[in-house]
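Schema walk-through. Below, the input block comes first and the output block second. Nothing else is stored per chain. Lengths vary across the set, and this one has 429 residues.
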Amino acid sequence: MKSSFKLNPNEHSWMSNPNTKDIISVISRGKKEIRFVGGCVRDAILNREVHDIDIATTEHPENIKFFLKEAGIKTVNIGIKHGTVLAFHNCSRYEITTLREDVKTDGRHALVKFTDNWQKDAERRDFTFNALSADLEGIIYDYCGGLKDIELNAIRFVGKASDRIHEDYLRILRYFRFIATLNVEVGEVSDLTACVTLAHNIKKLSKERIKGEFFKIINSNFSPSIIDKLHEHNILEQIIPNVSDTKLFRTIIQIENKVIEPNIVAFKSIRRLATLVDFDCSQTKEISIALKLSKTENHHLTQISSCIKKVTPNIKRADLIRLLHQYGQNVLIDTILINWSKKSNNIKNKIGHTEKDWLRIIEIIINIKQGSLVFPLKGKDVINLGIPAGPQISKFLKITEDWWLSKECKANRDECLIKLRHSVKRQIC
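--- output ---
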């Protein structure tokens, strides 16, 4: 129903910027009703930054796609049979969906029919604050009590929680994700109970969907308490196998807040995920499979596993540089932060190891230019000295590289060539 609450389009640039106006103008050709819906409305009310602009309309999706194509606006089919058209306009992304009702659901996918009824469309959404919509003038429509729940700082399912969950089991993870990202309270204990009771169904979802929501959880500002809650209610085991403890996860976030700067935040998801891994067993591979990690993510996690026992707070500079050359900055800093967290959790290891010890080695890593760690010789340099192609090439390169590393990678190409010639000459003689 129409509320007295109104967003001022002039105060919310995402509603009135030229790109949005273009999209609205194009899909208005059929004279159908158009509103902003979901997260963009919720975040605008909460004075949060709006990232994704979702639009709902009574226009048919095929017509939407036709109008956009005629206007030269790129579209992507992400679910047109479900009424959704994705549009890209001048680097802005818009998800445009026709109003719909669920005809049949199986916990993963829904068979829908299109409708002109805004309330029916709202009632199929997951949470009350996501069922809000705003017309082009900014007037808010609230069919499910979302404004009240925002005022109460609470999350609440639309209707009966078990019904919404059975429609899509991903809503269990979305429930905890919104608690973590919005820092809201549980609105109904029965909602939490339904999530816990039905959590075993999470494994029916695709690994890609599980990973997407789980990574949003672990990257959120309030993730420690949610990870604890997922573990407490045995939901975490439905996502990743054999997690015995979550203390390390909480500790690493405390340490990140002390040291993280923009130049070393890469791979945050994998770093935090790694705190839930037992590196003494094969759990790294199990987690990679469970979450269907990309090759890059899997390699990063595997490298942390390989490096984890090699980094100590009193490591010598030369050894640190050797590890930096072998693993790279991202892996090494992530490994340091994980080990720092482990030591902080272990009272026996606290004595003698202060924050200064860990900060010292992080500072060394950050101050070393990555380009200086590229070994300056290639196989052809060995061949030019008369060594035939074969295993001897690698042998001489390895000897010279080890020497170069012992010099903290400071020897230049000419100095490395001199060392290489001496090694070859010594071998021949």
